[in-house]
Write a structure and sequence with these properties.
This protein is α/β, with parallel strands linked by helices. It has 2 domains: 6-171, Toll/interleukin-1 receptor homology (TIR) domain (Rossmann fold); 192-429, no CATH class. Helix content is 36%, strand content 21%. It is built from 14 helices and 14 strands. A 5-stranded parallel β-sheet has the order 2-1-3-4-5, with helices on both faces. It has a 4-stranded antiparallel β-sheet with strand order 10-8-13-14, with no helix packed on it. Strands 6-7-11 form a 3-stranded antiparallel β-sheet, with no helix packed on it. β3 (76-81), α3 (96-104) and β4 (109-115) form a beta-alpha-beta unit. The radius of gyration is 33 Å and the shape is flat. The two termini are 44 Å apart. 25% of the residues are buried.
């Protein structure tokens, strides 16, 4: 469905060595339009001298043609300088880029960017004339008090600053009026509901204790088997060594070694909890049901007290810290392997910061039709969890929504239950693909 928006022309200007920067700025403008045009009612169009239509005329030079077609109509001019200043024109002693900025500074929003990287390329060092001219122009901008310029080091940093320029333009101007919509004449119902539960592995303590007990029992059996083997033969043959390699390549762990390992495991409970959720927690989705056709539907969800963890494909063997690793006869270093250092788990130090916070998710639902059938659900990318020892049984969620084809706004709230599907966990823990 159509909507009204204010079009804003953005001229991207720069010498020929800034084509990568020009492309990065184009992407930044396109990303802003995709995310905000419907809600903000502004649309930015990126224009560059490459967009000019070639015209043969004896009355104008090439820069004059660019000015006539693009520069004179620009609402924003972003001029970027990297290693070159450019070539002078019939009207400007510095370059065409400087001419474009000077031409619009009284009527448009003009921004100058200068590169400030770590090292000059060899081509610039070998032929420094353009670099010296650029440095002189930058000094002139500073000495003649032509406002403020900005520096950048990478195209990514430049793109972020372009996003700031667009927001500055929008915030300094009144919002375009929203048109009257046929759907606004009546109230439209909208409901957002969760499908699934948030992961809470209450049995984590019992699971870890069982793994610890099994590891200690295996170690005791290993010591008994080693002692029995040693009592049978003081000089075993090659076949006996190969049959019982592990027995001859390491010594039994001492009680203090085992106690240290158990203490290390206990310190990793929250790490285990997060890693298991990232690998085993089922996806949670939200379904949307509307009483009318909606365009450009955007929903913001806030889930209080949840922790979002990036999904992984790890198995329990990748997460667990074993009492000792099996020793292979092909290993060059045959020194006994006693215990593994505490696992370093991604993001473990952010646990306290996020534990009592909110998870905020924006869903770009697009078009939602009236309920001949429910719309497809929207699945969250990350796994949501709460700590295994939390006393909570459910978490509160809140949502707000808006659409492009109506002035109406919606909000709602509810609760999501906390649980871990034991069958799902069991299959994952035992490495089953079913």
């Amino acid at each position: 469905m159509t909507f009204d928006a204010t079009g804003v022309r953005v001229m991207l200007s720069g010498p020929t060595d800034t084509l990568d920067e020009i492309e990065a700025m184009r992407h930044a403008i396109a990303a802003w339009n995709r995310a905000h045009t419907v809600s903000q009612r502004f649309f930015f169009t990126a224009e560059h001298f490459q967009n000019a239509v070639p015209v043969y005329t004896r009355s104008m030079d090439g820069q004059a043609v660019i000015n006539q077609q693009i520069t004179n109509h620009a609402d924003i001019v972003i001029a970027v300088f990297k290693h070159r200043l450019g070539s002078s024109t019939a009207r400007n002693e510095y370059s065409g880029t400087v001419e474009e900025a000077d031409l619009r500074e009284a009527e448009a929003s003009v921004h100058l960017f200068f590169w400030e990287g770590d090292a000059l390329p060899t081509s610039v060092v070998d032929k420094p004339e353009q670099w010296q001219r650029l440095k002189q122009f930058r000094a002139t901008v500073e000495s003649e008090e032509r406002g403020l310029y900005t520096t950048y080091r990478t195209s990514e940093e430049l793109a972020g600053k372009v996003d700031d320029i667009l927001w500055k333009f929008v915030n300094e101007r009144p919002q375009p009026p929203r048109p009257a919509h046929t759907e606004s004449a009546r109230s439209i119902s909208l409901d957002v509901r969760p499908i699934g539960t948030i992961w809470k592995l209450s049995l984590l303590d019992r699971w870890i204790q069982a793994c610890v007990t099994e590891a200690i029992e295996d170690e005791e059996q290993f010591e008994e088997k080693r002692n029995a083997t040693n009592s049978q033969s003081t000089v075993p043959g090659l076949s006996a060594i190969l049959a019982s390699t592990d027995i001859y390549l390491r010594k039994p762990l001492s009680p203090s070694d085992i106690d240290d390992w158990v203490a290390s495991v206990r310190k990793q409970y929250s790490d285990f909890d997060r890693e298991i959720a990232a690998a085993a927690a089922p996806s949670i989705s939200f379904e949307v049901e509307s009483g009318a056709r909606l365009e450009g539907l955007q929903i913001e969800l806030v889930i209080s007290g949840a922790l979002a963890v990036e999904r992984s494909s790890k198995k329990w063997g990748d997460i667990w810290t074993p009492l000792h690793e099996p020793i292979s006869v092909t290993r060059i270093d045959l020194s006994p392997y006693i215990t593994r250092t505490q696992a370093q788990v991604r993001g473990a130090d952010t646990w306290a910061e996020n534990h009592d916070g909110d998870v905020v998710v924006t869903i770009e639902a697009g078009e939602v039709r009236r309920p001949t059938a429910r719309t497809p659900s929207f699945e969250l990318d990350d796994a949501l969890m709460v700590p295994w020892d939390s006393s909570a049984e459910s978490l509160e969620y809140r949502w707000t929504a808006s659409a492009a084809n109506t002035d109406q706004e919606w909000s709602g709230e509810g609760h999501i239950q906390l649980t871990a599907d034991l069958e799902v966990f069991k299959r994952w823990a035992h490495g089953s693909e079913d």
